[in-house]
């Protein structure tokens, strides 16, 4: 009996060790890690980019999405950038795997975050992220990444804007 309990405890410890916040299901992801308004915008962007890549060979599939916080003219912003298979290792705060994509986060400690991304629940920096490469090591095709910019109001609500409006 003691051997059985010992084996069960070992299996429990090993299974807990393999729990990975990067594999959290959609409902948990929305409730605990990312503001639902931001995740809805991210979902729309992923669906749009995936459908474009299926329609035409010119549009490559985007497997990396960058979310970053920044301030301009005393206003706070969060941006989503649809990218190819690379990330910025030097400035990376963390990442998640979501819907077969890698979502990377930057400047999450900014006062602009306002609880939009729970930085304690994203995977911390790693030496490498599987299936994408560091920006400095990537062979990047000529392209102009599309940036979706949202102003963050004082209540933490996201207001879609264009990048030029924030400059």
Task: Write structural notes for this entry.
The structure is a single chain. The chain has about 170 residues and is an alpha/beta fold. It has one domain. The protein is built from 3 helices and 8 strands; from the N terminus they run αααββββββββ. The strands form 2 sheets. A 6-stranded mixed beta sheet has the order 4-5-1-2-7-8, with helices on one face. A hairpin with a 2-residue loop joins β1 and β2. The longest helix has 20 residues. The chain is globular, with a radius of gyration of 18 Å.
Q: How much helix is in the residues?
A: 25-40%
Order of helices and strands: HHHEEEEEEEE
Structural class: alpha/beta
The helix count comes to 3
Mean pLDDT: 75
Contiguous runs where pLDDT drops below 50 for at least 5 residues: 3-27
> Cα distance, first to last residue?
69 Å
Total beta-strand segments = 8
Strand proportion: 25-35%
Quick one: overall form? Answer: globular
Radius of gyration: 18 Å
Strand count, sense and barrel status of the largest sheet are:
6 strands, mixed
- What is the number of independent domains? 1
What does this entry show, briefly?
The protein is an alpha/beta fold and 167 residues long. The protein has three helices and eight strands. It has one domain (23-166).
